[in-house]
Specification:
disulfide bond; globular; about 70% helix; mainly alpha
Length: about 425
């Protein structure tokens, strides 16, 4: 029998941290502004706890399924769609797969909008350095010179998404994506640099906060009426449920899975809180100016910002084909085709998905709104509902279901549904 490779708890913890940390970091200061300082910290804690609890239930249900539900011969049965097939039947499996496709597509749309943004500002920086102009650079956006050929060809929400499609196109048609998996560690470097970036900028700025005077540009409410925007994006920020079983299976000491997963979630929550709250408190302009991509708050020629954009752009350039590969497998599987039926099928699917991404980058390039709707919908299904239904179904098969279990695991999906509905009442 093939022996599963194991790793120490510390490696497992940081693998989860690296996997969970993503582009949500860029929107955390914006999220703090939407919810208010006190409420955002509360939401970081509560949403992290709920996501941790349902992730732990996934692991618990998988172990019970392998041991007691006729799956002894296959210890690898157990990611969400497979568990739904075993415990909830074909409808549950379909819901799990469709929701997974929605989350992956939403992630790719967000990545594409960000890559367009980073590509635009990076090329603009190079152009300005090569061809200096006597123009003033504002804080947020490069000032175009009317009539310039460069400025007609290089527009953030018009031409750049199309140029990006030409760059990405050749990278999406490979049968295997092992080349891109070699760059996974780049995500750790990007996240660590972003944390360092925020620390350095915040120390340089100092505190700029006012809790008492609403007419002050530094006024920072403890609680804001738009808190649903933050609660909407956090399920995606804490989402690891589709692969948590695979990640924890490699932990050397399986008795420490709950502890190690809790530590990993704690580190992720602390990182989000550090980046979001610290940046928000120290931002030296009006708090309402904070963009849903924190790098947009800096001048194009700021060296640390240029490096950050380069880091994250290269990271997303390697992650995007991986997500596309996962999407391809799931969509073709739903169509009862193999993962690479033909080059024509793959190119047609890639054109369709990239076309959707380009459309959002051109007509709706709002990272905050995309994060909160994707997070709220995907979270409602994959984080709040399916793990609870799986746990209830497992308890029924074990003949130990109690009314307390039903109540608790009904409240969690209801919370996710309310969170999703609340997104339609957020004032962007």
């Amino acid at each position: 029998m093939h022996k599963v490779a194991t790793q120490s708890s510390i490696v497992t913890i940081f693998s989860i941290w690296n996997t969970m940390m993503g582009t949500s970091l860029l929107a955390m200061p914006w999220g703090v502004g939407r919810a208010g300082i006190l409420m955002s910290v509360f939401l970081f804690f509560m949403m992290g706890m709920i996501c941790l609890y349902t992730a732990q239930k996934m692991i618990q249900v998988q172990k019970s399924t392998v041991s007691n539900h006729g799956q002894r011969g296959d210890k690898h049965v157990g990611e969400m769609a497979e568990l739904c097939r075993v415990l909830l039947g074909r409808p549950g499996e379909i819901i799990a797969k469709v929701s997974s496709i929605i989350v992956l597509l939403g992630a790719n749309i967000i990545y594409y909008v960000l890559m367009s943004n980073f590509l635009y500002y990076s090329v603009t920086f190079i152009y300005l350095e090569a061809c200096p102009r006597n123009v003033t650079m504002p804080v947020v956006e490069y000032q175009r010179v009317p009539g310039s050929t460069f400025d007609q060809l290089w527009q953030l929400n018009n031409t750049v998404p199309l140029f990006l499609a030409l760059i990405l196109g050749p990278l999406l048609n490979f049968k295997s994506v092992t080349f891109f998996t070699k760059f996974n560690s780049f995500g750790t470097l990007s996240a660590m640099y972003l944390v360092l970036f925020v620390l350095v900028k915040s120390i340089f700025w100092g505190l700029h906060v006012d809790f008492d005077h609403e007419d002050s540009p530094y006024f920072s409410p403890l609680v804001s009426s738009n808190l649903a925007a933050t609660s909407g994006m956090l399920p995606l920020s804490f989402f690891i449920h589709s692969i948590v079983i695979t990640l924890m299976r490699h932990n050397k000491d399986q008795t420490k899975n709950d502890r190690d997963l809790s530590i990993a979630y704690g580190l992720v929550g602390l990182t989000y809180c550090l980046v979001g709250v610290l940046f928000y408190l120290c931002f030296p302009l009006a708090k309402s100016c904070i963009d849903d991509n924190l790098l947009n708050n800096f001048q194009n020629r700021d060296l640390m910002t240029v490096i950050a954009r380069g880091f994250i752009f290269f990271q997303l350039l390697t992650v995007f084909p991986l997500i596309m590969y996962m999407l391809r497998i799931q969509i073709f599987a739903a169509m009862q085709l193999n993962h690479y039926p033909s080059l024509f099928h793959v190119i047609l699917l890639n054109i369709t998905i990239v076309g959707i991404c380009v459309s959002f980058a051109v007509f709706f390039p709002k990272i905050g709104a995309l994060l909160r709707f994707t997070g709220a919908l995907g979270g409602f299904i994959c984080v709040f509902t399916l793990p609870c239904l799986l746990y209830i179904a497992s308890e029924i098969k074990e003949d130990r279901l109690t009314w307390q279990t039903v109540v608790v695991h009904s409240i969690i999906p209801l919370t996710g549904f309310i969170n999703f509905v609340a997104q339609f009442f957020v004032n962007d």
